[in-house]
Amino acid sequence: xxxxxxSTLLASAAIVTLGYVVYGLTGFGSSIIAVPLLAQFFPLxxxxxxxxxxxxxxxxxxxxRHRRDLSRPELLRLLPIVTVxxxxxxxxxxxxxxxxxxxxxxxxxxxxxxxxxxNRAVPAPVSARWAVPAGLLGxxxxxxxxxxxxxxxxxxxxxxxxxxxxxxxxxxxxFCTALIRLVLFTGSGFxxxxxxxxxxxxxLPFAVIGYLVGSRLHARLSTRRAVQAVxxxxxxxxxxxxxxxxxxx
Length: 249
Prior knowledge:
Radius of gyration: 17 Å
Shape: globular
Structural class: mainly alpha
Number of strands: 0
Number of helices: 10
């Protein structure tokens, strides 16, 4: 049973659609787009597990469609390290006050969006040893907010030069982390929250539509230009989260 104002349902549908248009374009970005905006309507402990339902399906779609482009060595290198980071992240999600979670998410979104808008340098190759900090930090942010994708991308973009391989590897990695999060979130009781699963299934078609639209745009648009416009919007959204966190009693 979904007992929410119509305006909240419509806004949530639009937010989820936008998040997965970006995911279809880039192979990541759904949660960093959607979670800060959904957090204006729902607690983070509600919004993050709900987004996981969408990540599972769209990650499966992306992985099945582009599995031939996957870089298995990079995936296998990152997954164990990411898992350790996720366990730490779930622990924080359960124990830390909402205020500090909002402040951390808002600050991260603003910093990453500003960096993405201003950064014009060509990614330089890095050692595989950078998988350790990227995996730990990305895993923690994946569990806390579902926003580890940008961190994985910063690392993988410096390891993989092929655009299709990069997109496929990030997509499959996000799907694998979604499976791990499902186990951790279920064990932590997040899916026992009233209304979470009904709302997730009601919004699921919008995630699929957004993903399909983004996938079509991927071949026709400059991904960087499209995502830069979204980052500009996210600076506003992330700033509002910081202000909201500071204003909380």
